[in-house]
Each structure stands twice: as structure tokens, then as C-alpha cells.
Design brief:
Layout lengths: L1 H68 L6 H21 L2 E3 L12 E8 L6 E6 L2 E3 L2 E4 L1 E7 L4 H4 L3
Parallel strand pairs: 2-6
Antiparallel strand pairs: 1-4, 3-6, 4-5
Helix pairs in contact: 1-2
Length: about 160
């Protein structure tokens, strides 16, 4: 009788083990399917975002093309006005995505936002004297550091600014 009960218990446990193993396999398959679906949806979302950005830039490209097509008949003044209008349009598109140009001149040098490409005599030490290439931020993230000329009062400052 005792052997029979042990045998029944073992059979019962084997059945439970098989059931649990089947549930585990099903859960693992569900997880794999979820991951594939999530990756596919993320890729699709990225593609939609890229398309939206590019759609917003197409009018800028169109206007540049128009300006180039009229270069033979346009006056220098009208070309300049056209380029200024396209520049405003481009900065508007950047602003729509939270991108703005850094203000650098007369601000303290910050290696997180600025790349010192030259030093020049000046005071106060470490203040940006001039901007060679503008930097841009998107919200709080630096997209491109500004290339700047930094005021210095000594030759030893070259190491400090990474030049």
C-alpha cells in the first residue's frame, strides 16, 4: 500500500512537472514573441520619427533649390534676402525639434559644451572671446560643441583647454 502511494505521488508529481514545463515553454515563447513585436514596433516608431523630421526639412531644400534656379536672374540683394529667409526657415525647423544654438561669446568656457580650438590673450581668463563654429543643444543635450577661442593670460593654459 505504501509503495502504491509513493508510486501515485511520483506519478502526480511527474504530471505536475510536465504541466509546469509546458507552462514555462509557453511563457518563454510568449516572451520571445513580445520581444520581437516590441523591437519591430520600436523600429517602426524610429522610422516614422525620421520621416517626420525629413518631411519638415523638405520645404527648406525646396527653397534652396528655387534660389539656385533663379541665380542667373536674381539680384545680389534678392539672393541675400532669399538665403536669409531659408536660414530663418531652417532654424524654425530646428527649434520645432527643441534644437537651439548655444550662446558662447563672453561666457565661461565649459568643456562639456565648448571645444577650445585656439587661445588668445585676454581677461578674464577662461572666457570665450570668439566663436569659430556654433554649437547646438537639444533640450539639455549637447548635439555639437561650439568651437571657440578662449581668453588666457598664460602659456600654461594650453593644457587646461585641451589645445
Amino acid at each position: 500500500m505504501r509503495d502504491q502511494r509513493m508510486c501515485d505521488d511520483l506519478n502526480s508529481q511527474a504530471g505536475e512537472t510536465a504541466t509546469m514545463e509546458e507552462r514555462w515553454k509557453r511563457a518563454a515563447a510568449d516572451l520571445a514573441n513580445y520581444r520581437r513585436r516590441a523591437e519591430r514596433e520600436l523600429a517602426q516608431q524610429r522610422q516614422r520619427e525620421r520621416e517626420a523630421v525629413l518631411r519638415d526639412w523638405l520645404p527648406v531644400v525646396d527653397n534652396l533649390e528655387r534660389a539656385l534656379m533663379n541665380r542667373d536672374t536674381a539680384t545680389l540683394e534678392s539672393l541675400l534676402e532669399g538665403v536669409q529667409a531659408v536660414y530663418r526657415q531652417a532654424t524654425h525647423v530646428l527649434g520645432h525639434y527643441g534644437v537651439s544654438r548655444m550662446q558662447t561669446v563672453d561666457t565661461p568656457f565649459d568643456p562639456e559644451q565648448h571645444e577650445a580650438i585656439a587661445l588668445a590673450p585676454g581677461r578674464p581668463e577662461g572666457v570665450i572671446l570668439d566663436e569659430v563654429n556654433p554649437g547646438y543643444v537639444m533640450h539639455e543635450t549637447t548635439l555639437r560643441p561650439a568651437q571657440v577661442i578662449v581668453a588666457t593670460t598664460s602659456k600654461a593654459a594650453e593644457r587646461r583647454y585641451g589645445i
